[in-house]
Amino acid sequence: MESGAPAQVGSGGAGSDDRLSGTAPFVPAVPGGAAGRVPPRRGVEWRTTAVDGRRVAYGVVGTGRPAIFLHGWGLRPNAYARAIEAMAAAGCRVVAPCLPGFGGTQELNPDERTFPGYGAWVGRFCDAVGLDELALVAGHSMGGGVSTAFVHHRPDKVGSLLLANAIGGPTWALFPNEVRTMVQRPFWDWGRHFGKDLLQSPRDLRMLPTLLEDFIPNLVRNPLGMVRTGEFIRKADLVAEVADIASRGIPVTVAWSDRDGLVPRSAFDDLRRAAGVEGVVVEGSHAWLIAAPAGFGELAISALVDARAADDPSGGVAIPLG
Description:
Helices cover about 35% and strands about 15% of the residues. It contains 11 helices and 11 strands.
């Protein structure tokens, strides 16, 4: 059950003690020190398959129980290679597809361009690559919303859900006498925070080449598709779906970063309350897991442990992770 404000990470920096103020496990926000050391490269292998008769590129890395990672709007799994490797180092085999409309994957039909439509597509992708039961489903930003829709679509196939700065909370801003929703948020405000998010620190700025390597080809290849996807994202309200997933006993980890201007704190609060958890706050911008993949790996470890506990609450035989 929810027990108040989410656990937080300190300001960080060399020699600092980045400890969570709550009871949730410590998540290092920056590389450095024993806890924040970036895991050695395992190397994402890039493959292709067909879903609905259309080519889909995807990455795979690691050994152990299967898991899936879903990327954010405008990007491909390529930008998240280190975060995906860190997730695999937690003890699972991670598969990361290019979602429809990105990375050369053809857009969904107009009536399917919704979070339930994307969630159903992920189910068909899993069927195509032979993924049946998943130890962990993780997603960032838009991918978090798609992850929620997929787990809601196939709850019997998933052990745990990890949402990082996920789309899905409907609240944009809170005022003394008014609650403004994401639908009321103007497009220029999204753009303003997108630029600001990348210029807040030298570490964030170093992510720019990696992000542009994915973003520009997507923009050139399918500019209208990116706009169409962005339109349904801003209308997202997945609070009921998150609450239903949690009510089924599926552990839900909800994480957010303290300098995220794209997904506001109020939207994070919507999701963590729906899941009935404190949530975890890390230091960083919207794309913190690209800049600090070790912290994302720590979240994956915690989510897998939660999945094992949920699967066998009596403390019997543990589910093998490797």
